[in-house]
Amino acid sequence: MSRNFTLAIFCLLSMFAKAQINDTTVYKIVENMPRFPGCEYLSDDLKARNDCASQKMVEFIYRNIRYPEEARLQNIQGTVVVSFIVEPDGTVSNALAVKDIGGGCGAEALRLINAMNDAGVRWIPGNKDGVPVRVQMNLPVKFRLEDPKDYVMIGRDSVYTVLDTVPVFKGGEEALQSYLKTNITYPDAWKDSCAFGHIDLTLLIRPNGETYVLDIANYNNLGFDFVWEAIYESHKMWKLWEPAQYKGRPVGATADFRITFKPQGASCQSRWQKFEAAEILANDGIALFNEGKQEEGLKKLHDAVNQFPENAQFRYMRGQALVQMQRLKEACEDYSYVRQVLNIAEVNQLAIILCGSAD
Predict the structure, then answer these.
(1) pLDDT recorded at residue 248
(2) What count of other Cβ atoms lies within 10 Å of the Cβ of residue 48?
(3) Which one, of 223, 257, 219, 215, lies nearest residue 237 by Cα?
(4) What pairing do the DSSP bridges indicate for beta strands 168-169 and 241-242?
(5) Rounded CA separation 246/253 (Å)
(6) Cα–Cα nearest to 311, from 348, 346, 274, 284
(7) How far apart are CA 10 and CA 4, in angstroms?
(8) Best label site of 20, 22, 228, 319, fewest CB within 10 Å?
(9) Residues 313-335 pLDDT 10s
(10) Residue from 203, 250, 241 nearest 52 by CA
(11) From CA 182, how far away is CA 205, in angstroms rounded?
């Protein structure tokens, strides 16, 4: 192959790569469509990841939507359709109400979409030929004036919030803790470390007993190996739960539980004991705060955070106390940290509100 021919091929490849990088085309359909964030831990199951992303998006919308007073007074109901672009960096732009029902509903739907950027929500961008590109999305936002239902829709699941009986692990709480103690394994790659902490999970228990992880809170920012172990074992709980009951039939409902990863090395035991003592401090602090002894309770929370400043749960507990005391600048610092570790939509939004109020 001649040198000139090789150089020509190189130039063509460079031009192609540059064209991809500078691609400002707005696509409507690509190989991998944009996805609402929060479900990347389900890396091996595309369907589960997409279902989870849809549920997260619905949660964000209906947790943050405000029914316009004008629409309420005029009994306006219906669906607003908003068009917007998901940019390669995951932000949204060019929001437009392509279908409006009046009464301020269109403006509220637009506010909701634009609030994603302010709340730090970053979509997983659409992908074409392995490159993130701009993709247009259309999102229906429903406005309904009705009595609240006994359930919410999460993806295709009806998840009941009004129940006759809640989901129960077969054998009760003691059996659940025994199962976790027997089956949860401390990751081999971390056996020489002193990494430890809690991971809280929200599990959807379907009517047939099937389990599905809806949410996960990794307070100590443990690595992927720990998160994978927690999710893997949780999905193996198939048929180990008695589903919730509503009006004489099994229904979908959620169950919360905690997985604790405790290091086994003798050199780590003193630090683990210190962590357990800090947990007692934090819980005592909240108890005192709720009894009206705010300063005394806050001091215990300070002590817990000072010992383990990387623990998002301690920071979240103290941040809540500081908000109630109207010490917004300090609360802003705690919520900003929690936002980085947990990436929960409501925490993200509250952090922005708090930090804006504190300026």
Answers:
(1) 93
(2) 16
(3) 257
(4) antiparallel
(5) 10
(6) 274
(7) 10
(8) 22
(9) 999 999 989 988 889 889 899 98
(10) 203
(11) 21
Q: Are the beta carbons of 197 and 220 closer than 8 angstroms?
A: yes
DSSP state of 38: S
The angle subtended at Cα 277 by Cα 274 and Cα 280, nearest 5°, is 155
> Which SS3 state, helix, strand or coil, does residue 9 take?
helix
For the record, the structure tokens of 106 come out as 């269109």
- Residue 350: pLDDT band (50, 70, 90) is confident
Q: Are 175 and 169 in contact (CB under 8 A)?
A: yes
Do strands 244-246 and 249-251 pair parallel, antiparallel, or not at all (unpaired)? Answer: antiparallel
How many Å apart are CA 301 and CA 299, to the nearest integer? Answer: 5
Cβ proximity of 94 and 84 under 8 Å: yes
**pLDDT at residue 274, rounded to an integer:** 95
Query: Which one, of 343, 336, 253, lies nearest residue 39 by Cα?
Result: 343
DSSP characters over 183-240: H----GGGTTS---EEEEEEEEE-TTS-EEEEEEEETT---HHHHHHHHHHHHTTTT-
Secondary structure letter of residue 121 according to DSSP: -
Helix, strand, coil shares of the chain as percentages rounded to 5? 45, 25, 30
Q: Compute the distance between CA of residue 83 and CA of residue 95 in angstroms, rounded to an integer.
A: 6
CA gap 255, 234 in Å, rounded = 11
Show the tokens assigned to 69.
């007073």
The length of the chain in residues reads 359
Name residues whose C-beta falls within 8 Å of residue 44's C-beta, 6 or more positions apart in sequence: none
Q: What is the CA radius of gyration of the chain?
A: 24
